Amino acid sequence: MKLARIGAAGSEKPAILDSEGAYRDLSPIISDLDGPHIEDMSWAETLDIDSLDILDPGLRIGPCVGSIGKLVCVGLNYSDHAAETGAKIPAEPILFGKATSSIIGPNDNVVIPKGSRKTDWEVELGVVIGRETRYVSEQDAMAHVAGYCVVNDVSERSFQIERSGQWIKGKSADTFAPIGPWLVTRDEVPDPQKLGMWLKVDGATRQNGSTGTMIFPVKTLVSYISQFMSLQPGDVIPTGTPPGVGMGMKPPRFLEAGQVMELGVEGLGTQRQQVVAWSGTG
Fold first, then answer.
1. Which secondary-structure segment (H or E) carries 85?
2. pLDDT tier for residue 281 given thresholds of 50, 70 and 90
3. How many Å apart are CA 145 and CA 127, to the nearest integer?
């Protein structure tokens, strides 16, 4: 299944993509596509998609998971990305958090934060957890995965690297986590380590990689993270990015207001974000 959340921010309806590419309204069946309804998908067993109303195709697409409890991100998880940044291959997964207040829909605007000099892009495979997960083995880890989605792990490199402390500062600005368009259930992704992924800025390809170059595959990440914290249904794990980020270019290039990012992961849909300048006060 390809599941989504459709509508204005804060008022999204759960939806399912039908065979013709239309979004069908799931709100008579479930209240939201969130942790409890991801953990227990018995509602889908007798679902008659054709009986559901078609939603207006012009409606906004929201984040594909509602009420996400946490984003547990993985850094430097692609061998070719580590090489472009001059970093050593990590002996264990590098974990960091991303504030849930950064979550937006896949086509919402990305705002360059106040004081930013180095806002960057990162296309990533997101893993959506489907069951409460503690101390799970690699052998059993995939049974705890509900499905997958596209994540743009937008990053401010000067905040992340030059301001000392933990990476979360450069990862958590509002709008820095576009998620979706779809939660694609695990049965539709036979091998998450064989997915192409790409990102363009103003039509120019910046990233063109594959999950096959992950250092630590999905099963390893789910098992590893569960040794340090419990994972809950609806939690999302962005699993790292392939090469081609702005920081790795020679010379480095970063996002500017007016630019457009387009990105996708094979079989999981695409995103498109307009980059805008921060215009607030304070």
1. helix 79-85
2. low
3. 7
